[in-house]
Design brief:
heterodimer, A: alpha+beta, Multidrug efflux transporter AcrB transmembrane fold, 3 domains, four-stranded antiparallel beta sheet, 10 strands, B: mainly beta, outer membrane lipoprotein receptor (LolB), chain A, 13 strands
Chain lengths: ~775, ~250
Amino acid sequence: MSYNLLFQKIQKWFIRQSLEHAKRTIFISISLTLLVGYGMRFLIIDDDLMKMLPKNLDSRKSWESIQQEFGSTESIYIAFGNKSKSVFNKKDLETSWDLVKKLRKLKSVDNIINLSTITRIDNVDGFLEIKQLQGEAVLNKNQIESIQDYLNKNLKTKKQLVSRNESFLLTIVNPNTLSGLNYFRDDVVGVCSEVLVDYEIHYSGTAYITGSIPQLIRKDVKFLIQIGLVIMISILLINLRNIAAVLMILMVIIFSLTFMIGSMGWLFRFTGSDKFLFALLNTSMPIILLTIANSDGVHVITKYFKEIRFLKEPKKALVKTMETLHLPIFLTSITTIGAFSTMAFSPLEPLVGYGICISLGIVWAWVLSSVTLPALIILQKWDVESKGLRTVSLFEVLIDRLSNTVLKYPKNMLISGLFIIFISFVGVWSLKVDVNLSSFFKPGSEIRESMDFMDQEMTGTMDLRIRLEADMKDPSILKKVDTLQQFIEKNELITVTNSISDAVKQMHRIVMDDSLVYETIPNEKEKINNLFSMYSLSGTIENFSTLVNEEYSSGLITSFSQVMSTNQVFSFIEKISFYISSKFDNNISIDITGMIVVIRDMVILIIKSSIMSILLSLLFVILVASLFFKRFIWGLLAVLPLSGAVLLNFGLMGHFGITLNHITAILSSIIIGVGIDFAIHFIAQYRMFQKNNVKKNLTRKTFKETGYPILLDAASNMGFGALLFSSFIPVQFIGGLMVLAMISTSFGTLIILASLMQIIKKYILTN
Amino acid sequence: MVFLKTISFIFVSSFIVAQNGHEIALNIYTKQFPDDLTNTMNMKLVNSKNKIRNYTMKSRSIDKNRKQIIWFLEPKSDMGISFLKIEHKNRDDEMKMWLPAFKKIRRISSRKKGDSFMGSDLSYEDLSTRDMEDYLFNLKEDQNLNGKIYYTLESIPKKKLNSFYNSHVSLVDKITFNIVKEYSYDLNGKLLKEKEYTYKKIKMFDTLEYIKVFNVQKKHSTQIKFTNIEVNKNISEDSFSEQNLKRIPAN
């Protein structure tokens, strides 16, 4: 059986289900939607940047081994104080003590570092003293001065815990477990709001941002869907002028959304994979599916209205509508799924889940538009004399005028279109890739302000971790670590570095009667052994647990920096890698990780992912269109408008300084997935006329037939504009660019594709 | 004969049952202790990844361990390091250390009781001698351990002690009043450590032969085996001086 016959059989079966078993079809659709939608309760919102990286990536593996060996490096940084006042006073230090006391009671908290938890090593009258820097809650003047003196002597410690102008104190809190950072964040913020009533508070750190994002995402998605729906409903109501029709399209949209989110929950429930976590980049998913589901619905309803206007008989009109639209709706769905499925090959974990889940949503939108929507249409009693059905809409008038212009001057129109694309595409050379979290939040927003504060006043929160597998009691290794730290500190954005070498140098100085001459790494291993033994008897050796493992067989160098641009990140890591390979023996295993390296790796993965996604989805669309329309030329023509839109998009991103990141990287898939629909509807209609032996004014007739639904589809897809109201800057960019992409793909179809088909019509028709 | 045995069993049992927490504690704390104690300690630390570190130390103490001197024998890297501790009732304890590589004695400050000894699961509070007046005692329901019934004594540190524990629940042998097992709870009331003790009778004293501490929260354990145990060797108070830190005694 040829696939044509098979397709016709399926089409007939679909139409029969809608016409003869309308109620049963609707009932089954509702039941299945509810069943899959129930999976929503298993959906987890998590935007941990590290979970986005492939599990076998070196920086992720190193990061995981560091978490296991040296404890969590994901922290919440709390800075509190008053801008005009020094924190070295009785009240502020007592508050700092109280804060630790209350935070310790939280089950979600593992480790706390601030002035009241760290130890000091002193030489007092020739005797070694290791004790808490702040020994008690309430301090007298002398004790406060002593703390100040100690910090001025140990500037690395001061830099980490006191702000530059001494008006803020920093507390670093690590979570017990990396899952549920949002609960950890809420716990910590709850305690701080209670204890730090009289202070200005700033929060930062990956644990804080990752913990805050789920709440922001929840708010954002809810808000965006509402705005998206309002925009869409308004445009549909203005054009369709029929409430029942708009409600039917809405049903398709809501059911598809429920199905998609539910399936994401179920997939997470059954696989436990990070791919199915709902991250920041998934925020655009509902709006995108909303527009895709809307497209299918709009095409069915507008075609039905057009048919009923002439045939006057609902059943006949519906059969005609579905006979015409089954193939294009199927093709647009399958090509859109194809474009999004390419994300499944993305090296970035959430993009895989994004691709799979949105594809499931599209499948369901296709089923609903092909079977359930016709069933609803047939149950509805339509007033053929109503204004919506009887008269043409504004868009239909517009389309009529546009078709006249395009088909009158096809060459001029084609050249103008291509010229616009070319001018825009030049911007690609200025396109920058940047995945820095701080650029995701609007200037002036709470998170952005706190991050800026941490950069300007404290050490910054971008970290670089270097893990060495070597004998960490060996003086030659410790000396190399020390010089590596000095090399890192040469970068002016690096605020502080620390390692076990610093501790050894400090202990050496103290044992040698606090003489600065001895703030060095001793030359003899025995001395280093003695220093560690002395510390383990006199201090808590656990204080070193973030610097060296229990066996002293591996150590960690931690550096903090202010925000670095992507270019700075690349050059900085390159320099460090070169330094390490030239100064350290090959037999010493050294891993580099931390936020700075993650940013570099994300950038590489995003570029790979974007290029792969564009090429694979274009190839898929060409193949599917060529196969179903039985000629390669149709495949090429189908991708023409959207290729133009992709070039236009990336070019404009470059012109307007919009950076490519893991959130905007999905744009190409969205443009191809959503934009292909217009070209397919256009070509499908053209071929149908061709098949029915319509010889005269083929392009004009196709334009008139498909122009209106394409324009209405694109206009109602202005729901993407809802993304402009997102709290996240990259999502706003997606919104703006998608509005542009809808205009470029729809007009690309109606101008570039139509004019080209008009120009090469002889070739198309004769071959 | 059977009748007499039964009567005496009932008598002893009723006597045992009649004791309250304070009386049990009194029996524990007033147990006879040798004047001095010498031993070799083999300390084995096992972390959550099952990695092992071993230490061997020689120890001498008097006055219920209130004065103690420890010489490190192994690992080789620590050989020669020694440590002198003198506990004081009303002032900070004295602690001194000999660092052979620097040829220097360094006094180390009085430490937080909760800090661990040499990275082990024993804190300085675990190692210091408990004074009965610092605790409140509650007798709980008897517990069965390996088929034997033990008193269950709860010890709650008084506020003035500034303990790092909320409470200890000890299983106490009904005849010898030795603590064979103890559960220690942190200040949040969560189980922190499980400790097991084994004793050896030397002369008339029940001396510790083996301690196992398992830190439930960190999944880290410490085992200490005491060998070459000797008691009442007439060790003088003068032995606990800086001078003696510098050389490891031959026996």
